[in-house]
Amino acid sequence: MFKSIQDDLDAFLARDPAARSRFEVALLYSGFHAVAIHRLTHALWRRGWRLLARFLSQLGRFITGVEIHPGATVGRRLVIDHGMGVVIGETAEIGDDVTLYQGVTLGGTSPAVDSASQVGQKRHPTLRDRVIIGSGAQVLGPIVIGEGARVGANSVVTKEVPPGVTAIGIPAQVVMPKDKAAARAFVAYGTPEGCPDPVLMTIENLRSQVADLKERVGDLESQLRAERARDRAS
């Protein structure tokens, strides 16, 4: 237990340049408090003390501004940076060395609202090791975010993201291909420098297609005028 707490503290020190000491993180970081409370509530949940687990998790939500359902599975060295507004659902699974920023939602989707039909059903995302989710991003449904993948700020993800890529936008699209070396590097807010804008890319692609079509139409008009000139001459 103490080794797990130490690992969590060290993870905050490694990924937050504002953190100066373990003592500062332990005393002042709401993200660390939320993870520590969840480790307690999850242990209670697994042992069948589910009402107490939910009560303590809601108390933790009031204190930290982070809502983690006690049924969620959280790996080692999770960092919730800034933390306020983070929501992690019951069947969410989070791997090791994952980083979440403020306003992130790991939400569930289900075609039914009948609670009896959802017992034991996987409704929330799975985040593999070293995933980074930027602030305000919404990851929805029983999808998998691959190892080392990054989701940019304010993105909405409803489909699986392959390992080692960067996805941004609404809906999220892969904008940077897999790079084994870069995938292991930490990138704040999940958005690497020089990351292209998918909307701008789409607009530029459409502009290029329109330019090609205009050129082809001009060629056809020139051919048509030439044929009409030959017909009049004959």
Notes on the structure:
It is a single chain. The protein is an alpha/beta fold and 234 residues long. The chain folds into two domains: 2-196, UDP N-Acetylglucosamine Acyltransferase, domain 1; 197-234. Helix content is 40%, strand content 15%. It has a six-stranded mixed sheet. Strand 14 (166-168) and strand 15 (173-176) form a beta hairpin. Helix 3 (30-46) packs antiparallel against helix 4. The longest helix is centred in the last third of the chain and has 36 residues, at 198-233. The chain is elongated and about 95 Å long. The mean pLDDT is 85.
CATH architecture of the largest domain: 3 Solenoid
Number of helical segments? 6
- The secondary-structure class comes to alpha/beta
Any idea what the radius of gyration is?
Answer: 25 Å
| Strand order in space, largest sheet | 3-6-9-12-14-15
**Domain module count:** 2
**Low-confidence spans:** none
Write the CATH homologous superfamily of the largest domain: Hexapeptide repeat proteins
Helix proportion range: 25-40%
Mean pLDDT: 85
> Quick one: biggest sheet?
6 strands, mixed
Describe the protein's topology.
Elements: H1 2-15, H2 22-28, H3 30-46, H4 50-64, E1 67-68, E2 73-74, E3 79-80, E4 87-88, E5 93-94, E6 99-100, E7 105-107, E8 126-127, E9 132-133, E10 138-140, E11 144-145, E12 150-151, E13 156-157, E14 166-168, E15 173-176, H5 180-183, H6 198-233
Parallel strand pairs: 1-4, 2-5, 3-6, 4-7, 5-8, 6-9, 7-10, 8-11, 9-12, 10-13, 12-14
Antiparallel strand pairs: 14-15
